[in-house]
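Here comes just one.
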Amino acid sequence: MIAFANPLRPIEDFLTNLLEWLHTTAGFSWAWSIVALVVLVRLVLVPVTVRQIHSMQNLQAHAPEMKEIQQRWKHDRQRQNEELMKFYRENKINPAASCLPIVLQIPIFISLFYVLKGFEREVFPNYPGSSLDFIGLVDITQPTKDGWGPLLLVIYVASQLTSSYFMAATMQKAQRIMLMVLPIVFIPFILNFPTGLMIYWLTTNLWTTGQGVVTRRMMPRPSSPAPRSSRTPQKEGPPPAPAGSSPRKAGVPATDEAAPVAAGPPRRVKRKRSGGGKRR
């Protein structure tokens, strides 16, 4: 029987060694070592986060133009996608950049789940006298549903909704609703997660919320282009000059219509008699 290697094993070993180093060298408890782990991970992801912020701002600045494309080709989904991809290339927009920090954290999150699952059996016995408690309320290896874990769960949902609010600023309405509903849908699954994993994700959400507040102050949104609708007239150049007319000189005000210059004596125009009198 062929045994498949665990692709996340290197990440699990790295996280275990890092938690042990934070506990023994930095002097953190096991729970606060998880909090410190979040800080280190987010510091490493700062370049990716900055790229994410610029991408979200770029999307926000071009949102009216993208909405116009979607409305123009709403009956042709394939053409709509082609036009949007063309628009992204022309304006150097990468919609996937806003998801990079989350995507890069998924392997860490899953690996930490397995580290904490066997932590009390494989790591904790090597450090007698240490504690698995977090601020005297929960044990990081116990399920979230035990003890004061539900309190952390409530704080997690609130922090997830807040962080989702900052992340969903440039998304469509349906995507925003889905992102705000997901934390509530995940509650039945999270109840059996180790509390340490909840501490990790809660700290991540608080970091994301603080990051959103700071970036909104330090990096203002770029100015959006003037909104246009289907009734907005297109700008056109000056009407073509009549054949044989001389070009307009600079500094001379333009008239509505250029009257042709007639050659020879002026024409006499017969005036019509007013009233209802008969001709004689």
In short: The radius of gyration is 34 Å. Residues 16 and 115 are 7 Å apart (CA to CA).
